[in-house]
Amino acid sequence: MATLVLTPGLKKNECLCEDGEPQAPTLPSVEDEDAHIIIPEWRLQKVQSPIELTHDETNEYDHFEPLEYHGHWDQGGKALFTNNGYTVTLRFQDRELPILLGGPLHNDQYVFEQLHFHWSHDDHSGCEHIFEGKAYSMEAHAVHYNKKYSDFKEAHDKHDGLAVVAFFIHATDDDEHPCFNKMTEGVKKIQKINTTTEVASDCLTWMSEAAKCKGYYTYQGSLTTEPYTESVTWILYPTPIHVNREQVAHFRELKSTPCENFNILKNVRPVQTPPPHKKLDIIYARSHKKSD
Ligand SMILES: [Zn+2]
Hints:
Bound molecules: zinc ion
Helix content: under 10%
CATH topology: Carbonic Anhydrase II
CATH superfamily: Alpha carbonic anhydrase
Oligomer: single chain
């Protein structure tokens, strides 16, 4: 089994294997536009993501409105799981898309676009953000775009365009996580690149468990994949979701190229160091959460 490690200059889905058909990145390039958006000063302190963070270096803030999840773990419609050769993405169809609001998002509502995962070749290096020096097996990103824009494409390069909720997932020798099984059952059916399967519509119930914890970290950063636009309000839960090692291993069986000589064994961007003139402004928000 060969490893396809993404390196600078090698775009996702490109294959160095002779039989593979190189494919262009899935995100379209979008012309730079001046957004003319009035947003609070602290939201402009942007950096590239992911970052390493420690609680001692954060500012605590207790005055956000509750962070609210609407519809993320409801039943109904279709939940489609796709192997795009770089990761697996979950998208909803034939239902009202979930909405994220409150917390650091001020008066804006953010529409669920997709959820995807990052992982690596072992159980100790598959997350993108590093919290308190610890690395976990996987990191899940629930990507939302600001409803004031027409879609993800229009929002993705705006100052306040995106909100991504990040969850750490850690592999243990314990029993499998029953809710997370809805994900792994889907993964088993999309080993080939560019294949899609339907999973249970309430497949995100494992997220609700993590979102009940006491607080979360938030900062202004970037996408961790192309085009790396600094348009993301990150919301990061520090407590990992524990799953079984086998549940993580299934992700490494996914093929990254049409020739099927490569598996997706690592899709993690290294931690980014902010430039010296940019001080990291990370906020720890205590949860006063309500959700439905
Ligand atoms: Zn991601």
